[in-house]
């Protein structure tokens, strides 16, 4: 089975994507759709018990502190690779990291 190539797909789109085959993903919901906007992340809630600052989390994920801040405040959608990195550092899964309201 070939891996999905989702590196440029935002996490919000990923959760609402319909997989047609092992090599393609079709997203039918745009960011303007209220369902997509209802996806929230739990990064700050998971980061604080681990006593990780935004800067420390950013360094472990190889991004800037500003990127982590923007993600926590729903101003930036991480790439799928960054979502997996965040989940790894925060000792959780991507599914648990982002929740649908």
Automatic annotation (TrEMBL):
Pfam families in UniProt: HTH_3
Organism lineage string: Bacteria, Bacillati, Bacillota, Bacilli, Lactobacillales
Gene3D superfamilies: lambda repressor-like DNA-binding domains
InterPro entries: Cro/C1-type_HTH, Lambda_DNA-bd_dom_sf
Domain HTH cro/C1-type: 43-97
Keywords recorded for this protein, A-Z: DNA-binding
KW Isomerase (keyword) present: no
SMART domains, per database record: HTH_XRE
Species this chain originates from: Jeotgalibaca porci
Protein name as annotated: Helix-turn-helix transcriptional regulator
GO-annotated molecular function: DNA binding
